[in-house]
């Protein structure tokens, strides 16, 4: 097997490092979106997120070569994730205001986040983050299909474990939601930056710059 060569082992090491970073980001999104739900629905939302990420990553991994050739795909994914980030920020702000009103005895109970809202946020974020993960892993695992498969399995396992932990943590310490949001914002802006660098030469050529 190609994985037992020095090149294969190096590729595997690179993939593990990428998975540790990107699977963690994905887990933050799932945990943040699921944290506003009732405990029974939270587990279902996390399961939906993991299944969606699994299906998306398998689908994207199967067309990796074609994806790497699509100019502007990374930029589009980053913009999509930025939109999810903005929606989550509004929810966190609304929940914080509601908590403050509740403590002062002034506020009325606002409707809880629905399962559908959480699941939609998770799936949309999964689309862009799975794209980023697959492109990054594919870049490290070139010509090593076994490494690509191992990387896919590792990222899904780490995501499931971390998302449950993060959702529970967010319910106990609400301020951590802002830390999670900052992580997602960084990933989105990083994707937009890298996508812009990729697209810029083509835009400059089209405008004669």
Automatic annotation (TrEMBL):
InterPro entries: Integral_membrane_TerC (IPR005496), Integral_membrane_YjbE (IPR022301). The chain crosses the membrane at residues 12-38, 45-64, 70-89, 147-167, 173-193. GO terms for cellular component: membrane. Keywords: Membrane, Transmembrane, Transmembrane helix. It is found in: Membrane. Pfam families: TerC. The keyword Membrane applies. It is a multi-pass membrane protein. It comes from the Bacteria. Belongs to the TerC family. NCBIfam families: R_switched_YjbE. This is YjbE family integral membrane protein.
């Amino acid at each position: 097997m190609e994985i037992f060569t020095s090149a294969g082992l190096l590729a595997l090491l690179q993939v593990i490092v990428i998975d540790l970073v990107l699977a963690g980001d994905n887990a933050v999104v799932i945990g943040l979106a699921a944290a506003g739900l009732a405990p029974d629905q939270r587990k279902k939302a996390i399961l939906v997120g993991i299944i969606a990420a699994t299906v998306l990553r398998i689908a994207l991994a199967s067309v990796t070569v074609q994806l790497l050739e699509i100019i502007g795909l990374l930029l589009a994914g980053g913009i999509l994730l930025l939109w999810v980030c903005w929606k989550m920020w509004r929810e966190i702000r609304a929940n914080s205001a509601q908590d403050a009103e509740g403590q002062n005895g002034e506020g009325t109970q606002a409707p809880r986040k629905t399962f559908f809202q959480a699941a939609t946020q998770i799936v949309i974020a999964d689309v862009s983050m799975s794209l980023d993960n697959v492109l990054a892993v594919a870049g490290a695992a070139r010509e090593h299909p076994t490494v690509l498969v191992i990387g896919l399995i590792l990222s899904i396992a780490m995501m499931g474990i971390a998302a449950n932990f993060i959702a529970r943590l967010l319910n106990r310490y609400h301020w951590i939601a802002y830390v999670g949001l900052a992580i997602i914002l960084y990933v989105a802006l990083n994707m937009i930056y890298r996508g812009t660098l990729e697209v810029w030469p083509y835009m400059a050529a089209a405008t004669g710059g």
